[in-house]
Amino acid sequence: MLHLFLLPLFWIGQFDQPTQPAPTNAIQLWGICYDVTTAVYLPVDIYALSGTSRTRLGQSDKDGKFSVLLPLSATSISFVSPTYRTVTLPVTFVNKPTPMTDFGVGIIMGKQDSAVVRQADQLLVRNELPKDLAVDYRVEPTDPRMAVAMMTTPHGNRVLAGMRTSFRKGELMQSVRLEGAKPGLYRALVSTTDGRVLTDKTFTLTKGLTFLEVRADAPAKSASVSAEGSKIITPNKRNPADVPAKPAPVNAADEKRTETAAPGTAIVYFEQSRYELTPETKLSLDSVARLMMSQPQLRAHVTGYTDNVGEQKLNLTLSEYRAKLVAGYLKKQGVSDARLRVDWQGGNALISPGDAEDDKARNRRVVIQFSR
């Protein structure tokens, strides 16, 4: 058994030395790989595949985080970690991204002696839009039924297949990861709040990792009408980020989803009675932290909520834990305490009063409201 294990190491050491592609022909890919069962970050080696050739791009740091240059010629990418099943995902670039544009990704891995982990198809979006404009924004399936459907990811997340939101001037999130993406026809439509279209692109989302750079490459024109017969509205956007030094164990019921909803607002959703932050949610909150670090004048009001199941006193405490955990994670990413205001309201402010599980799930949230 030992000689079977040593052979791959010899192969990697002899023939797969790190080779960085030219910056003019590559994007920057950053993120984490982690155990699907324990949520522990994993050391990984990362490879790009193009045809029959394989190039080692690099490896993660001691904390399991990585940042590598992914060549635009790549057709797939592999993540390799000792004793874990190798994850290889197809790579598709919707439009040729600007060189060195960065995208964030999260990869789950399972041990070799465990069941095969189903990988979610991910739409990785980078927004290169004017920061001095307020915009209505949507990237979602063209089929309106799929656009509003809740998807369940391999980790048990309940997420949307796309996002629809508005951004106030200076508050655009540059990096978004949609883990609920479903292969099929999508549309990226961005317009100013006065109705001028900045970009309107229809594309096909494929299996694996699909990269999309959203940029203002269309002439200004009047906003088109949606399939529902109205202009862009602002409901939901899933964004594709804790206090404990190590993430808590995760199972199918532990995960949450992150969305951006009303203008200048980010929302993190939790499962019932839970308040831990998982690696995927941290990636989404990393986007919030990056936004705040890039705009020192920005402040955030963090408010925790619960559904109305159970005792109100306990729900109030749970909403406090959720709000403080989210604020604590943002502080760890460099956001100063003076820029954060933390509140909690338990189940006193339901946004979905129904008894269905989807309604309850929308109430179990932390809202991050931005202001200047």
- The stretches of 5 or more residues where confidence is low (pLDDT under 50) are 1-17, 218-263
Quickly give the CATH architecture of the largest domain.
Answer: 2-Layer Sandwich
What is the class of the largest domain in the CATH system?
A: Alpha Beta
CATH names the topology of the largest domain as 60s Ribosomal Protein L30, Chain: A
- How many strands? 21
Main-sheet strand order equals 3-2-5-6-16-8-13
Number of helices: 5
Distance between the termini: 61 Å
Please tell me the total number of domains.
Answer: 3
Order of helices and strands: HEEEEEEEEEHEEEEEEEEEHEHEHE
- Judging from the principal axes of the Cα atoms, what is the shape? globular
Q: Name the CATH superfamily assignment of the largest domain.
A: OmpA-like domain
Organism: Spirosoma oryzae
Domain OmpA-like: 257-372
Subcellular location: Cell outer membrane
Keywords: Cell outer membrane, Membrane
Q: What does it look like?
A:
Keywords: Cell outer membrane, Membrane. With 372 residues, this protein is of the alpha+beta class. It folds into three domains: 16-118, Immunoglobulin-like; 120-235, Sandwich (Immunoglobulin-like); 241-372, 60s Ribosomal Protein L30, Chain: A. It is built from five helices and 21 strands. It has a seven-stranded mixed β-sheet, with no helix packed on it. The radius of gyration is 21 Å and the shape is globular. Residues 1-17 and 218-263 have low confidence and may be disordered.
